[in-house]
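ok so for the tutorial part 2 we go from a plain amino acid sequence to predicted structure tokens. step 1 is just haveing the sequence, like this:
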Amino acid sequence: MGSMKGFYAILGAIAVVGVGGILWARSGASRLPSEPLSAGAIQAAKGFGGYVVGSESAPIEVIEYADFQCPACSQFWVLTMQQVYERLISTGKVRWVFRDMPLEMHDKARLAHHAAACASEQGLFWPMHDKLYSEQRVWFGLARAEGTFRDFAREIGADPGGYDECMGEGRYRARIQASFENAVSVGVSSTPSFVIGDRIYPGALPFDEFNSIVDSLLEAGTQ
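step 2 — the prediction. this is what the tokens look like for a chain of 223 residues:
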């Protein structure tokens, strides 16, 4: 009996260590590097123009500057984006460009944007974009969201190994910063904001307002 008690004690210790290792791996999975970005790396990343959906020949381009942790951005996605896609993008009127603008007030925004960028490597930016917004209430208040974002990546069909490597390297940190700096340089100060033509439209615009702006630009272009 004494030897069996010793055996079970060792087995229990192994189990505890094993669970602890799993929890550590999950909590530390896909953590971004903390080293400061160089000015050269940011400058080199400025050529990326954003994530695009819609026809290259669409007469109107809309550039959305957004933050995945921004409640108003999520509201826009829930209430308006589907109509925008069905009635403006898929009909060939609008070419939509999503650009990263993670605000400093949101503690997990940069991590979320980097998760979407890593999903993009596997052709899954838009599914990750939708997942981050649809599940924002789940991860918004978490102390740590790395494991949750990794779960999202797996759920949309991303290869976990490739995703982890991308996140661990912080491969797109400079590109996200470059996009943020671009937003500031053109005068964007809040999210969501939309650059349409030569104007900036801040806030989660309703579809009717979007439609009116697009129609007015189309009419002006035909005159």
